[in-house]
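Inputs:
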Amino acid sequence: MGRVTPLLTSRRVLNITYKTPLETLLSVPETLPTSEPVTPQIGYTVATIHLPTFDIPPYRKIWIACLYGAGYFPSAGVLYWRMKKNGVSVASGTASVPAGYYYTVNAFFYDVAVGDLLELALWSSVTDSNWDYKAYQVQVTRVILFNKPRLLFPCNFAVLSAQPFLSLGTPHVTVTVALYPCNDDKALTGITSGTVFTSLYVGDIYGIFRIGYGDYSTSNTAVVSTSPSYRPYYYRNYAPTQIIMRGLKTEGQL
Amino acid sequence: MRLTLDSGFKKDLSNEEMATLDAKLRARIPELVGWSYSPLTGELTLDFGDAEEKMLAEKIEDWMRKADCTRKLRLEFMEMIKLWEE
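Outputs:
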């Protein structure tokens, strides 16, 4: 007896290309107001040109946006921030900033789409604080490459890259958080370099992986980092740039 | 260290409500560095900065030196496991 169809699909190499982050460093810092501004200082509208690209169109994917705002506090004070998506508040918070320190608001919007307006409003308890830096990049999470087969055999997270790479101002990375591969909708131990899994079952909720900031952690919210020397002093992700896999076919699947 | 709690309510906080909540939290929890609140989920995250983590990291280095060992491998703490990779 011979097998009519092969057991495994052909080898698929999924390459993901991330766009260079949009960065702006103001030549003259803007003073922060002492009450919430009507119009947030920082805003980006998600456009197709901002999205990561795939050489194989995935069956399902979810976009997250990393948005950064940074500035300086000559006097100690409390920074207030609010994240808005299409004019609606999705998170708000505060952070103590010591005198002579820079701050960076690391805001992560989950499940954004082309046309969404993403904004970050900043205000302060003191009159001499300011902001002068903003940046934005879109990343991807919860990818499902093909609807069927769902059993990958193997799944090789061949190449990861730290995203975004910010260059303006006095940039320094606070932390680059791991990528979380998922098996049957359960996150596995985070990875920070190329890793091969003998098999993975791709669940409907989390797909192949969850990105660290923006999905696994700090989803639709922000974290503020402070530094006497650096801004942006930023949080970023290990993001997959190449995943190699084969699907294990079951009866009746193509 | 950040601790996320269920506030039990989901409402958008105004500028004034944020200031009130901030004052209340800082009065009750002096070591608080910051906080965030989500009207979508009702989650309140308290941010204590990295002071505790730095202190623990220094202790770990000290314990390693006192034990005459050369490399950290694994830390188990409150059912969480941290692995140090080369």
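Remarks. Chain B has a mean pLDDT of 92. The interface with chain A takes residues 2, 12-13, 15, 18-19, 22, 32-41, 43, 45, 47, 85 of chain B (CB under 8 Å).
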